[in-house]
Structure formats: structure tokens, C-alpha cells
């Protein structure tokens, strides 16, 4: 207490009259009482450079608090004294308690000593056990880890990357955090990314090798698939041929036919299951193996790089397809088109299998986009190549292969209509080229024809040249050697036309148009009407110089008429329509112009020959005293020639053609006789001359009647109508009542072939015996002959009419 008072006296409070210092002192006192931070006051004191003021305020605050402490101590001093007395009274009790506790402690230690020793042993044993358990667990963990590492290395060495990655994932997920060895942990943390990187590089290399290999495989695969489509088409064609033969036999009622469709398994060999768990989707023959692709995709899925691999696959395949579109300018497209289309076909067969079996590696939309690009490019290539081609066969070969490509890829669901549209677009050009080729071939065939009947020594020749075109007139096979009524031109032209039909049908078939007979028929009509008919007309007009040649051409035309029936039936059969529909749409004979020209040429040559004999008519005595009994010389010569002609012509010319030709020749003879009587060379003639002409016409009529055995009685009678003008004129001149010519009924019935102007001129030349011209019309008296009178009346009346 003394010291406290002394301190108060030593450190008296200083009075400061400065109000700011008092304010600072109050702020400091308030902060200390409130337990606030004094840092701001310290920083301010040092900032202003007055730390002594701060220390002064702190000392002043401490002195102010000492007085408060003294007051507190004074207030509690008596209580403190009493407490000290109580503590002193307790010291004896504490000593006794301390002695008791010491004794108890000694006893407790004596009793607990062994127990504590046992407890220490137990604790030590437990710690050892825990350490051993921990060590065993660590060993087991390391053993499992080592086993996984060993298996991972084994799988990696065997290129079993998926199992390697599964082991690595297991190590990383289950063991790497539990590994007690930091060294081992660091090694694993370093090696695991390297293993994954190695697997990615390895699998990418395998995939790259597969991309190279699949291009070759795609070409072979496309060729195989298109070849199978071709084989299937060939089987269909063979089946159609058998069906047509059966229908033809049934139609001809040759025999009862029973036929059935034979079904064959269509194993395209384009699917297989891989033995290693991957669906390789390929053919063992071609090595169409998708295992590397599926493996690469699966590994990238395991690595978490699925999207990147999808993009990588699509871009590489797109680049390959773009490369496949390149057409070499060094190789003709005809030689490279199969490889070009087979490569594309194989590409999309592979993509179809990948789409269906890879589990999302490529999207259907991506494949469709690739196909649209491919179709557009193929159409462009076809348009360009077709525009350059000038050979029908080349165009047909490419069209056939493209149609097979369409059949092949349609089986896999790809739309091929744009390709078929390109083929249809060039239909007209193909047929124009085909017509041009046929025109050239027909011209060469006709130029090489020797106009000789064709000799066939063997049955196969007969079958090849006659039966194959249904040119036979009888079902009985002739004896060999057989001389055909036609020349070699006929079967050669038939072969050209048949080839045209088959090529036309081949182009139109499998082109997306189901009914194309009308198109084939249109071009067949053009071939026959424009090409063949035109070539025959040119041949007839420029190369026929003899009767035998003209006769052979006329015979050929008859056979070609039968061949034309076969052509249209053959086109109908190949087009797959019933024959009755084809026969219903038949028009007239397409070679009418050539046939008519051939018969006209033959008739013209025969008329020229006959004209040579008819010059003998100049030797007729027109004022003969007696009528000739056996006809005039010219008629005998003509009949001898005609009989010789008929004996030759009947071997090659059909009866109807021979009848038309003979009728035309007889009509010409009749016209020549009438023309002679009408002409200036005959000034006058008598009835004896008329009777001689009557005998001549009777001989010609007898010749016509004799042809009844060759033709028919009706045809023989029609043959005589060629002589109707001469016969009616002679009948009129020999008639007792020539004025009946003026009767319309009689004239229409008996003189319908006569021209009244010719009757006037010829009748005026007839003389009776009174003027040494008409001696047979009456006696030798001076009285006018009634017949002459009637004839004069006829002439007068006819002149009045004219």
C-alpha cells in the first residue's frame, strides 16, 4: 500500500491545457476500456512523430487505474484475511489426507504394477498385430496389383488391347490410390498414360492398314456382287426361254408341256460371323473382314475417344470415295468402267454392313449423303462418256453393267433411279447407233449376195438358216443336200435383224421400264421400213440386171415376209408380252416397197424379154387370104419362153407371186397386141388377120389354163384376166352385132376393158371383101355386109359420143 502511494506521488498527473490532447487521451482510454485495437493510435503517433505523447497518455491511464485497484483491495481486505485463516486451518487436514493418499498410492502401485506390465505387453502386442495386419493387407494389395500388371503385360504382348485397357482401368480405379509404395504409385501414374497412348497408336496403325486393304477388297467385292447379279439375271433369262418354248409348243399344240419354276438359294456370300467375337460382316472368299474396324472402334470407345474416331472414320472413307470417282484419261472408259463401278458398289456394300452392324459408328444420314454424292458423280460420268461414244455395242456393254450395278445396290436399299434415268435418256442415241451399224451390215450383206439359191448340206445348216427364223413352209425336214428357194441374203439379214431385236430388248430390259415392247417395235419398224427396205430398194434399182437375179430377189422378198412375222413374235417374246397382243398390233408388211419394186423389176425384165419376141408381130400378114391355123410365130415364141420361165420360177417363186408376175406379163402382151393394131405400123387388116390374133390369144389362154396344176383353178382363171383387153377387142371385131358395144349393160358385162377411142381407131382399119379388107363379112356381091354396116354405125355413134 505504501508503495502504491509512493508511486502516485512519483508520477503525478500532468495537466495539459491543450484540448486536442485531452480528446486524444479520452479516445485512448475509451478504446482500452472497450478492448479495441490500439494499432490506429500507434500508427498515428508514429506518423505525427509524437510517440512520447502516446506513452504519456498510456502512463496516465495506468496511474488512473491504480487508484481503482487500491479501492477494490481495501473493500475486500477483511474477507481475504478470513480466507487465509481458513486455509491455515485446513493444512492439518490436508497433511492427514496426504498421508492417507500416499499410503493408498503405495498399495495401489504394489497391486497395479504387474497389471500395468501386462497392459504394456498387451498394448505392444496389439500394435505389432496391427502392423502385421497392415503389412499383410499391403502385401495382398501389391500381389493383386502385380497380378493385374502381369496380366496387362501379357494381354499387351498378345495385342489383346481391350483386356489390357480393362486391366489398366482396374489398376487406376481400384489400386493406384491404395498402393502403399509411393515409388510403385509414381511408376503406375507414369506408365498407364503411356500404355494407353501406345494402344491408340497401335490400333490406329491397324485401322490404317485396314483402310488400305478395304479398297482392294471393295473392288473384288463389287465385282463378285455384280457377277452374282449377272448370274441371277442369266438364270432368269434361261427360265424365260424355257417358258417361251413351252408356251410356243403349247400354242402350236405339239405336245402337253408341264414346267415349273426352280428355286435356288441365293447365297451372296457377303455375310459371316467372326470367330473372335466381332461380326466381321464379310466373305471368307474375299477376306471381307471388318474385325479391324470394329476392334478399333471398340478400343476407341474404351479410351473415351468414340466421337473422334467416328469423325476420323467418316473423313477417311469420304476421301477414299472421292478418290474412287477419278476416271483415268489414259484408259478407255470401256475398259475401265467395270472397275470404276465395281469399286463404288463394293464401297457401299461395305458401308451398308458397317451401318447395320457397327453399333453407331456411322449414321444412316451420312451414308445417304455419300450415296447421293456418288450417284451424282456416276450420272455425270455416264453423261460425259455416253456423249462421246459412237458405237452401239460399247454403249450397250456399259448400260448392262450399270443396270447390274443398280440391281446389286437396290438389294442393299440404295435408290438407283437417277442412274436408270440416265440410261433411258440415251435410249434414242443407242438405237440410232444400232440402226447405223445395221445399215452398214445389211449393205455389206446385200453387196456380197450372188443371187443364187442357198445350198444346205447338213441338218444343222438347215436349222441355223431356216428353222431358227421359222422360214420353213412345212414341218417335215427335207432331204439333204437341200436347195433353199432364197439366197444367202435372207438368213444373213435375219441374223442382223434378230441381233438388233435382242440388243434393243437388252438395252430396254432392266432399265426401270416394265413394258417396253412398243419402244422395241417402234425401232424395229424403223429398221425394217427405213434401213432394210431402203437397202433392198437400192439393190433392186442398181444391181439387178437379169431375170434370174430379179426372180431370186422376188423369191427372197416372199421369205422375208415370213421372217417379218417371226421378228415381231420374237420381239414380243423377249419383251415378255403375249403373242396375241403382238399379232393384234401388227400392221402391213414393212417391206412392201421393196417387194413391189422386186416384182416390178421382174415383170419389167420379163416384159423386155417378151418385147423381143413380140417384134415378130411385124411379120404378120394383116391382109391374109386364110387365117393361120396354129397361131402366129411371135405367140409361139412367147409361149415357149413363158413355159420355160414357169418351169424355172416354180422352184423358187411362190404361186401367188408367180401368178402376179405372169398376169402382168400376159396383160403386157395383150396391150402390145392391141397397141400394134392401134399403131401406125398396121394401116389396115382383115378378118382373117383378126381370126389369127384370136388363135394367138386362145393359145395364151390355154397357157394360162395349164397353170391350174401349179396355181389353182381360180388363180388360172384370174391369170386369163390379163388378156381381157385383147380378148374383148377380138370378140368385138368378130361379133355379128358389134353395135351391142353401145348397150351399157352388154358393154359392162362383155367389153369393160375396152377404151372406146381405141375401138374407133381399130375398127376403122378393118376392111371387108368388097374393098379387099372385109371379105369374110359377106358375099362377093355389091350389097353391103350387114356386119360392116353395124360396125359403121358403131364407129359413127362412138365418134358422136367423143
From TrEMBL:
GO BP terms: acceptance of pollen; Golgi to plasma membrane transport; intracellular protein transport; pollen germination; pollen tube growth; vesicle tethering involved in exocytosis
Ranges in coiled-coil conformation: none
Keywords for this protein: Cytoplasm, Exocytosis, Transport
Main location group: cytoplasm
InterPro entries: EXOC6/Sec15, EXOC6/Sec15_C, EXOC6/Sec15_C_dom1, EXOC6_Sec15_N, EXOC6PINT-1/Sec15/Tip20_C_dom2
Subcellular location: Cytoplasm, Cytosol
Family: Belongs to the SEC15 family.
Protein known as: Exocyst complex component
Gene source species: Vitis rotundifolia
